[in-house]
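Slide 14.
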Amino acid sequence: MKLRILIHLLCFLPVLSLSADRALVRLNSGDTLTGEVLKDDAEAVVLDLGFTALRIPRASVASVEKIDAKKPKGDADFGKGLFRKGEMLRNLPLKDLVEKLGEAVVMVKTPIGLGSGFIIHPDGYVVTNDHVIAGERKISITQFRQTKTELSKVNFDNVRIVASSPENDLALLKIESSLKEPLPTVPLGDSDSVKQGQRVFAIGSPLGLERSVSEGIVSLRNRLIQGRLHVQTTAEISPGNSGGPLFNYRGEVIGVNNMKVVATGAEGLGFSIPVRTVKTFLLNRDAFAFDPRNPNAGFRYLSPPR
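Slide 15: predicted structure.
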């Protein structure tokens, strides 16, 4: 949304300020901005947005509300869709992002195969591909927890299918095992912010090689395949990556990896379901609710002979 105020660009480089407080700035126009307050006086509010700094005339500012970074996240932050939005305003190094997000990316196993997924809610809600769990009722999830001294694998064998959509190739799972503490989560980004050429990376378990990271760029943000829009990327996507997240460098999920082109001479052709589709699926999960009484749930039927 375009701001109906006069804003002066101070610079095009991120302004680093370790002591600045994050705040929500409400404008007289009704718009809002979130960032680190570098200066707040009678003349103007200077706000660090991560990619640039803005000088907002004080006469255009309705209020400046400090954001308490130490405030724990509650269920209200996740809303009806069970997901939260990103809060990081600037890109971070890949190493830091992997360390920050890795524990929320999981391996999803069934008796006939495996894929990836990611935790969106601390109560144990996990997003993956429908084709990873299609026709299966026995599902397990493995989370990888890194401490200062060791890596531990936590297996959850009591997993329920909450919703599934073969048309969108999405599924929502719920870890029913008792949890000693809330699970780490990853935020969902915005499809409108995805740009061609933008750097992205994937975390998953290609061919069972757990905790693998691959990076690339967005080749095209809206590739039409089989009647569905996909984010095309050069980030390596292999069997086992299915259901895993495609991240931007702010640590937000912008897609769910679900396919790649396998052909002689074809490389760097991976595809992800846009996060806009994921949000619609989650917000309308009642329409995709899994019915265990459905005769097609947990069984496969071959086409009749002709």
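Speaker note: The chain has three domains: 8-66, 76-175, 191-275.
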